[in-house]
Amino acid sequence: MFRNTKILVLLAAVLIVSGCATRQVSKKDYADLRTEAPRSILIVPVINRSVEVNAPDYFLSTISQPLAERGYYVFPVHLVKRVMEDDGLGDANMVHAGDPQRLGKQFGSDSVMYVSIERWDAQYIVFSTTVTVEMKYTLKSTATGKTLWSNSQKVVYQPNNNNSGGGLAGLIAQAVTAAIAKAAPNYMPLAHQANVQAIYTKGQGLPAGPYSALYNKDQVEF
Questions:
Q1: Nearest to 205 by CA among 150, 168, 128, 124
Q2: Would you say domain 2-18+27-200 falls under CATH 1.10.1760.20?
Q3: The pLDDT value given to residue 129
Q4: How far apart, in whole angstroms, are the C-alpha atoms of residue 14 and residue 191?
Q5: What is the reported pLDDT for 25?
Q6: pLDDT value at position 72?
Q7: Which residues of the chain are under the pLDDT cut of 50?
């Protein structure tokens, strides 16, 4: 799994570089983030605005590693979820509307990561299936309650069915491929890619944390 994530990081980096060549995006304001310099991140239950009920659990298994590799201590997400449920904080909407300072006192974290899943679906149209994941990320301080960083990312994947040959047989093969993708779409690589792009994109992602060799050395990019 670690090897696969590394490959995704490299692929995302290529996408980021090629994207920067065609469009310029204003650099985010990192003043508050650098002033507070959080060392730890608490990821709370995810708001799910998609129709896939299992999307939050799948997503939570993808978010910790890129944040940790960026140089932050990340509280174990599933343990946090269980503790919060035991404390009556299992409703994601209620948690997101609550006070991050309270969570900081409860868990001893410097910051809280709030994520909402906007899309996690597969759309079937004739001979093709389009798989989409879209997330919004917000990092808040547990000391002041301020928003230190926010970002959003959308990744769309459409299997290439053009290599199935021509004629009726080719159309049937395309239909079967699309039906399989619709029945059991693989969202996980897309979620990994969305996280990597949201966190690592220069000028938009998170600056390196204190447990990274790049800490306080990436001000030009962030």
A1: 150
A2: no
A3: 80
A4: 17
A5: 72
A6: 98
A7: 1-22, 161-162, 164, 168-173, 176, 178, 180
